[in-house]
Fold each of these.
Amino acid sequence: MNLIYNIGLLAGIQPEDVLRVEGAAQGCTGMLENAWISIEDGRITDFGTGSCHPEQSEESLDAQGGMVIPGFCDSHTHLVYAGSRDGEFLDKINGLSYEEIAARGGGILNSADLLGRTSEEELFRQSMVRVQEVMDKGTVALEIKSGYGLCPEGEMKMLRVIDRIKRSIPAAVKSTFLGAHAVGRGYSHEDYVDMVIGLIPEAQKYADFIDVFCDEGFFTPEDTARILEATSLPAKIHANELAVSGGVEVGVQHGALSVDHLERTTEAQMEVLKGTGTMPTMLPGSSFFLGLPYGRAREFVKAGLGVALASDYNPGSSPSGDMRFVMAQGCIKMRLTPIEAFNAVTLNSAYAMGVSDRYGSVTRGKKAALILTEPGWDLTKLAYQYETPFIRKVFF
Ligand code: NIG
Ligand code: FE
């Protein structure tokens, strides 16, 4: 057995049957001061209070008063991509919008061209640098999407790379087939949707989820429904980033695990989400980078809904996978309390990627995927002092 003792604050404790938190419950989390936690075979076996423990041994770890929390779960990333889009950064500074850059053949198509010229080995290597970066920042579970292939070979290359990452790292990885990210070069819109549907049987060999960029200028709710009806994979949908897109409704109708972005959600759509198994997921990093409105997280929670926050790590709208920055924006820009934001980047984001039975909280039987901080940290400081290094060790 492994033991961590002398923990200043153990936070993120949840009962076994709580797989997500909604409404007022999003503002609550179990905490113990002066605590210990025991781990066996990578699972949490027990925890309690007191500075010593009967089974304390030389192998036990002295937390020296640091905080222990569940590691971050990032339920929405596009971190497998080739090269960079830093050229477009200047276009953006000069005033071009995301849609204008895309309409000029930049954006997602630019990443697809780069990916086409990059070998599978090199794509893996470049992506692993980002994977290591986010694990070092405390991410213990992450979802990664395809969507920069935009042709059968490219999409399958991405799904194989994600699969290889899954088998190479200690963090949990879920893979999403996002063939419908943009219409690939040389296809008509209709032919492209047909291609995506035709590729599903092959993609399903690797993918855990299906996603569609259901938004103005990309794919319609009708395209989305056709794609979702062609697979039994659970859906995670890009909705309401650029416009009120209908993605929330089509996602909920198809039992989506999550609807993501939600920069522009209406009251009616909040009603549609109530009482469903679909996790509203907001991506403040893309609001920040693209200058979009921030999701209405405060109002969602007030309405009794749960909210997850994720990074959207990608080269075009959120070139960062820093979940503490996400948490800080959840507080500063979306008016979540630090505990609400913490639950949004742990338990609720674990739910949004289908792993909250194993990740996202301190619960007996769950994976001991934990962050041990330096002494003197608490959940408020985590979001408030969001740039200060805080991690002593990440356990997977
Ligand atoms: O979630 N919106 C669609 N996809 C990404 C952006 C992808 C890109 O620009 O490369 C997003 O923001
Ligand atoms: Fe995205």
Amino acid sequence: MIPKSVLKALREQIRKELYSAYYYLSMSAYFTGVNLSGFAHWMRKQYQEETSHALKVYDYIHERGGKVILESIDKPPSEFKSPLDVMTKVLEHERSVTASITALYELAVREKDYPTQIMLDWFIKEQVEEERSVDEIVNLLKMIGDAPAGLIMLDRQLASRGS
Ligand code: MG
């Protein structure tokens, strides 16, 4: 049995991952609107990845015999100023997700819920990777500044994201 408090936090984590997916899909739409199809593709992959994170927690609750209850998902922002604005928001958002996973892990430790701790190990590693890849794009965008050639090159690079 998953401790009650952990189960509640896991359901909340499903909501957060699905909100992330929704947020990134909105960003993908923004990029399509400004003709940056590589960025749009990258963000759509990000959307799919966040959906898979939500499903990982969803499946885990079922594996432990818990009941999945889905919460409402907020409307994401739809106005963005620039690619740098978007990617900076992705980085901030991923940092907040990392903080919530850390809090969830600490709760599982307090509740002596070892299976949840083991499940969360994967998420902790994943967050390191997420933050690193987004941070790299933010730094490239800062270097590019207002140079369209650089932006077009980065757009082509992001178009090649496989998963
Ligand atoms: Mg995630």
